# Entry
Amino acid sequence: MKDRKRDRKALRKTGLAAFMALLTALVLCMPGTVQAAGPHVQAAEDKAPTPVGAHGALRVNGPDLVDAKGEKIQLKGMSTHGLSWFPRYVDKETFRTLRDDWGANCVRLALYTDEYNGYCSGGNKEELKNLVNNGVSYATDLGMYVIVDWHVLNDRDPNVHKGEALAFFDEMAEKWKDHDNVIYEICNEPNSGATWEGIRAYAGEVIPVIRKHDPDAVIIVGTPTWSQDIDQALASPLEFDNVMYALHFYAATHTDWLRDRCEKCVEKGLPVFISEFGMCDASGSGANNFEQAARWMELAKKWNLSYICWNLADKNETSSVLKPGCTKVSRWTEEDLSESGQWIRRQLRGEHD
Ligand code: IDC
# Structure
């Protein structure tokens, strides 16, 4: 599979190089066009590579996420809010602004399973799948990594909607199997009594369904207690390659004790992915605690942990990065951003370092 992808990629590259050479030769042979052609060809070469263009297919190596060259890579970006409630941010220009102005290399598409109008609770499945598919296409066009997030929350235990999860991931993985940029997150936050044993059993069924189509896709697995109990995953990890375990934090709620757990697990070799976090408390609202958030970011930097911020919407809650009532879906100014939005944009741009 990997070889097939590589061959295809090499072929594309060779084809493109040959085409560019031919084009350059043709243009240079045309009298009077040399002056005009020079800077144009130069400009095309100068164009910065996209994140996926630069890093290619990712895989998990020990605790690290690494790129096609085997070098460590940190994914950083934004999660959408629930796709059925805020579909308008599934927009190519939204993602472009996140990439070019915010410095994000990844977006996460949050597909709630059991909330109001969730995928398994009355939502329009075809419309929701279209949103996910469009999101993946836009991210692909822009050379960004994209996480397809099966957003278990109200359902508590991913086994509740396991049948639908199997059908969904079967369809997604078949559709996107040739894409190097798609990451599957198979259960956002098991909680309230959902055990690691149960999650393990669920993962043991869902992962093979994805791997049947895409043997080397990176897969993120949620952990008990709203994706905080990564120590349970360390005690009994899954027997699959290219798997990472989700750790979620909300900085005003989860402080030293969860950072300590995180560090201990990573030190022992557990691949951890912060696929959701907020600077406020676990309700998604309340006051932001930027001091605690900054400590989390230090930890992420130290261990090269990928992180995705919750949430890209203009909902009237602290964790939304746009001010309530902001109608723009892209090219936001500082005034369009909430306090959270201003902070995370600076963080992603590296301005806090
Ligand atoms: C919250 C949203 C809120 C929505 C609620 C639905 O911010 O607008 O009404 O979900 O139950 C999580 C979850 C994430 C939560 C978020 C804040 O993954 O879905 O979003 N949170 O509560 N885990 C910890 C916090």
The longest helix spans residues 2-29. Residues 117 and 235 are 36 Å apart (CA to CA).
